[in-house]
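Before a computer can learn anything about folding, someone has to put a protein's shape into writing. The three-dimensional part falls to structure tokens, numbers that each stand for a local backbone shape. The protein below has been through that process, and both of its lines are reproduced in full.
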Amino acid sequence: MILEWAAFAGSWWVSDDREALRYARFRGIVTRETTDLMSLAVVNGDIAAREAFDLLRQMADQDRALRLPGAAADLLR
């Protein structure tokens, strides 16, 4: 649908599943992961970097397969 329906033009494929991301990227679909969304929220001032980093760590501790930044400051990039 993302590639075929005009209503989805410019949409992102959001996932933390490595194979789903690989497939989407292979198809030329713009992808984002939870960490990317948190980074956007930090840069936009919606959440503090430390708070976002801690939340990502809590998600990972609950067996979410996330790509984690090395430090809270990495979310500012």
Summary: DSSP finds three helices and two strands in the chain. The first strand starts at residue 13 and ends at 14. The helical segments are 18-26, 34-43, 49-61. Residues 49-61 form the longest helix (13 residues).
